[in-house]
Write a structure and sequence with these properties.
The protein has twelve helices and eleven strands. It is α+β, with helices and mostly antiparallel strands. Strand 3 and strand 4 (99-107) form a beta hairpin.
Length: 420
């Protein structure tokens, strides 16, 4: 076996002439049994005629049979963990001669692990203040707010206007249309253009005005555009917030009083902050390990990772309203810009898998089953049916791999030296 470059290797294979002839005879026999030639009953045409008449098909079938089978034996003999499909070139296939060809392929690299325990990482265990709890409870209070209709009068700051809105210019294609949109006059989340043009109007009034959307606006269809709207004020509402007391706590869940709610809110905030802080620390640990280990990665893995990154970006753009049909991707440019990140991500994945192997970290059946049960609840499907589906489409393996990765990251975090 010869090293071509990085993880790419090459083999020159020769299959003995007698083995080639034996396979050719077998394939020709199969063709003979199915062939329908004028003047001969099915399966009765002479073998010599079959070989001549179907030479191209026989040749192709022999190659499709012998090359993969021979390569598989060679890979097993040399203990090669091959990824992707080998490239077959320089095929020499003539009657009475050995079948010779060259195969180029990529293998999973052999990683010589350095020290991965005790990686130094900046980490501070987060804290939660009374102000944090009060702010979260205020957010819960906002969620429980009621919006009550009030008698018609001119809109003012703090009012919630119920507006029918339709674009009459500035947007291509179908107009933007909302039959009942609620806007807080003077609110932090309300564009100034809406506040300035709606303030002073009363229910029943209509007005046309323009709104300039920033370039980074979430809805791609409106981003960077100046849109002219026709607005009709349908109604006027006032927001009424519940009082923060024991009744409020009991209305939110299984809490006996406000003190229990505050305690639960504090614990939830702390758990979320710990999760986020630990995730950031784990990312830094992985970055450090990637920097410490130098090894080649298969281009097959890199291409796959780039495609995954692009697909995630496209899904996000689609969710924001972008028209993907009009999007033209320059794959060569995409690959160039995404390559460095993709290589690091592939290296990280291979390193974590190698560490998991060294430390005997794996996903247990119970852990996989619990994740399937969780997904079954979300998707409202029977657990057994979902388990069978996941087993067939490979999702079970992906779940197990994800669990193994998370357990490995937790192991590395626990073994790391945390510095303030």
């Amino acid at each position: 076996m010869a090293l071509v470059e990085g993880c790419r290797h090459a083999l020159e294979i020769s299959i003995p002439a007698e083995e080639v002839e034996s396979e050719t005879t077998r394939v020709a026999g199969d063709v003979q049994r199915r062939a329908k030639l004028p003047g001969f009953r099915p399966g009765k045409a002479p073998a010599s005629l079959i070989r001549k008449q179907f030479a191209g098909d026989i040749r192709q079938k022999v190659l499709e049979s012998l090359i993969p089978k021979t390569l598989h034996k060679q890979f097993e003999a040399e203990n090669l963990n091959v990824v992707g499909t080998p490239d077959i070139t320089d095929v020499h296939f003539h009657e009475g001669e050995p079948l010779r060809f060259k195969a180029e392929f990529e293998v999973v690299p052999s990683i010589e692990l350095g020290e991965y325990r005790g990686v130094e990482v900046a980490y501070n265990d987060p804290a939660v203040t009374d102000e944090d709890v009060a702010k979260r409870i205020e957010e819960l209070r906002e969620q429980k707010a009621e919006y009550l209709n009030v008698d018609p009068r001119p809109l003012d700051n703090g009012d919630f206007a119920v507006v029918a809105l339709e674009s009459v210019g500035g947007v291509e294609g179908q107009p933007v249309k909302q039959e009942e949109m609620v806007l807080e006059i003077g609110g932090a989340d309300t564009f100034d253009a809406f506040t300035e043009n709606l303030r002073g109007l009363s229910p029943g009034d209509e007005k046309e005005f323009e709104v300039a959307y920033p370039d980074n606006y979430g809805a791609a269809r409106l981003a960077g555009k100046t849109v002219r709207f026709h607005a009709t004020v349908r109604g006027l509402r006032k927001k009424e917030l519940p009082e923060v007391n024991d009744d409020f706590a009991q209305d939110l869940g299984d809490y006996r009083n406000l003190e229990e709610l505050r305690d639960a809110v504090g614990k939830n905030i702390l758990a979320q902050r710990q999760f986020e802080a630990q995730q950031a620390a784990k990312d830094k640990i992985v970055d450090a390990l990637v920097d410490q280990h130098d090894f080649p990665v298969p281009e097959t893995f890199v291409d796959r990772q780039i495609r995954t990154r692009v697909e995630q970006s496209l899904r996000a753009m689609s969710g924001e309203g972008a028209d993907l049909k009009s999007l033209k991707l320059d794959w060569a440019k995409v690959k160039e810009t995404q390559r460095d990140k993709a290589v690091r991500e592939v290296k990280a994945s291979l390193l974590l898998a190698r560490i998991a192997e060294r430390e005997a970290i794996h996903a247990t059946r119970d852990e996989v089953d619990k994740e399937v049960e969780r997904l079954a609840r979300i998707q409202r499907e029977p657990v057994a049916a979902l388990h069978i589906k996941f087993e067939k489409d490979g999702t079970l393996g992906r779940i197990a791999h994800h669990i193994q990765t998370e357990k490995t990251l937790t192991f590395l975090f626990e073994q790391a030296r945390k510095i303030a």
